[in-house]
Amino acid sequence: MKRLAILALFLGMAPTAIGEVSVRVCLADGNTPLEAADPNIPFVYPEIMVRTKLTIIVSSDANDYWVGDLFIAGQDRGYGVLTSAFSFPPAGKEAFLYPLEDGFYQGFCFETDDPPDVGDWFIADYRATNIGDCNVGLYEWFSFDPKCELSFSHVHTRDFNNDAKVDFADFSVIASYWEAVDCQEPDLCEGADLDTDGDVDVDDLMLFTDYWLERTE
Length: 217
Known about the structure:
Layout: H1 2-11, E1 21-27, E2 48-49, E3 53-60, E4 67-73, E5 80-87, E6 96-101, E7 105-111, E8 119-128, E9 132-140, E10 148-155, H2 168-176, H3 202-209
Parallel strand pairs: 2-10
Antiparallel strand pairs: 1-3, 3-8, 4-7, 4-9, 5-8, 6-7, 9-10
């Protein structure tokens, strides 16, 4: 297998420069950047709703051959998933990628052509699946430790009718359960009890309006 041959060769070599590989997160459109929650803390992003789709783009400002991975590891696999991936032309005609899912990792393995071009190399789709925190690691050259981790925190969706946007149709669910006092798990009054305290009140309305007109894909 090509990848195993590369690994054997790599282990017998002295370390060499592998270029300036970077990663950025965008909304589902692949163009709109998702900014860090705090500009002083990179790779930690604002809370997103369950079912939100994001894109993760691997790029480089150098044309050095590169092997790497995007993985969700361990218990984090219960909160998010990497659903698909493909390569951009700068990765080269001989670039390839394949999915990997085993007892610990879920994600994609990447390899550029030799040499690739400078630019965007690969893109992967990420989906928030459950309430909680999920980290996506960027790994390089068969390392067991990630070069960086992208940290996402998932909250209850406000898209109650699952049409990929938060709008008046979803507000009508809040209105229909307004002042309800018997919301129970797992339905939570069709999701209107956003703070899960058993009732639908102004606290839930404020949580809802925080995501007004946002899209999940």
